[in-house]
């Protein structure tokens, strides 16, 4: 394993991560040198490397990275590639992975925690590829194209469906809806990124997984409350969903007790506040 970070992170043109998106990345919230959901991030990185067919960094090597962080809140971005070598798409055997990292200052958006956000439906449909489902791999062109669909800062996120019009995720966050007394989030066995906050909430029993066939857009839009979340931004209640042209409102939701309870569970894992009013 070779690695470089912050000031010396030069990427070779021959690096397969740069050339083909042949690699993975993690974005980790770090507070005063302490990484949040660190075990989940390391586990996802290791699982992704094994599924792509090369060795992940040693856990001890990764554990040394957060201690390099500046004081206060920041985001540690880790990029793991297969390295260089091979002929064309044929990967080298054995691979010599490279790991790059960088710290970026970060300020969350408490107004979105408190007042909720508006979202839109994206026109782009996610392709189904079970071999890559759940991984935070480097090829994120679908997300880039989806995010390119709008420039209105009043729209916080875009919702993504697959080619069967089943709900999957947002462009940079996971999502959930409240129904039949519990919170549901779509299964991610064909596409989508399994977020680390999503994994922690499932493991703690706060979220249930809905099969793709049970996650049509209509179920989400008809739910009494909905939300978005990830391991950096925390949980945003959704208050309105617009169509792709921002002309028709598909759904509106109050910020109720069920959202605030899930927000409290999520924010407890990230060290964020959760004592917001109910509108």
UniProtKB/TrEMBL annotation:
- Alphabetic keyword roster: Folate biosynthesis, Lyase, Pyridoxal phosphate
* Pathway participation: Cofactor biosynthesis; tetrahydrofolate biosynthesis; 4-aminobenzoate from chorismate: step 2/2
The terms under GO molecular function for this entry are: 4-amino-4-deoxychorismate lyase activity; pyridoxal phosphate binding
> EC?
4.1.3.38
List the catalysed reactions: 4-amino-4-deoxychorismate = 4-aminobenzoate + pyruvate + H(+)
What is its quaternary makeup? Homodimer.
**Protein name stated in the entry:** Aminodeoxychorismate lyase
């Amino acid at each position: 394993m070779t690695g470089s970070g912050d000031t010396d992170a030069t990427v070779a043109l021959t690096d397969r991560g740069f050339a083909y998106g042949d690699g993975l990345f993690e974005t980790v919230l770090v507070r005063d040198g302490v990484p949040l959901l660190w075990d989940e991030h390391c586990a996802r990185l290791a699982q992704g490397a094994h599924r792509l067919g090369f060795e992940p960094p040693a856990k001890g090597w990764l554990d040394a990275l957060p201690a390099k962080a500046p004081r206060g809140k920041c985001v540690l971005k880790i990029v793991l590639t297969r390295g260089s070598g091979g002929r064309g798409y044929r990967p080298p055997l054995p691979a010599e992975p490279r790991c790059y990292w960088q710290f970026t200052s970060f300020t969350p958006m408490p107004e979105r925690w408190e007042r909720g956000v508006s979202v839109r439906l994206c026109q782009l449909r996610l392709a189904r590829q079970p071999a890559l489902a759940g991984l935070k791999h480097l090829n994120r062109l679908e997300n880039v194209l989806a995010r390119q669909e709008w420039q209105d800062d009043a729209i916080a996120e875009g919702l993504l469906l697959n080619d069967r019009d089943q709900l999957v995720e947002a462009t940079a966050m996971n999502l959930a809806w409240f129904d039949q007394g519990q919170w549901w989030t779509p299964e991610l066995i064909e596409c989508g990124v399994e977020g680390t906050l999503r994994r922690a909430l499932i493991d703690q029993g706060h979220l249930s997984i809905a099969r793709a066939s049970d996650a049509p857009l209509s179920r989400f839009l008809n739910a009494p409350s909905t939300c978005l979340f990830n391991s950096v931004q925390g949980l945003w209640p959704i208050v309105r969903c617009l169509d792709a042209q921002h002309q028709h409102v598909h759904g509106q939701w109050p910020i109720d007790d069920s959202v605030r309870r899930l927000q409290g569970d999520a924010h407890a894992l990230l060290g964020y506040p959760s004592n917001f009013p109910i509108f």
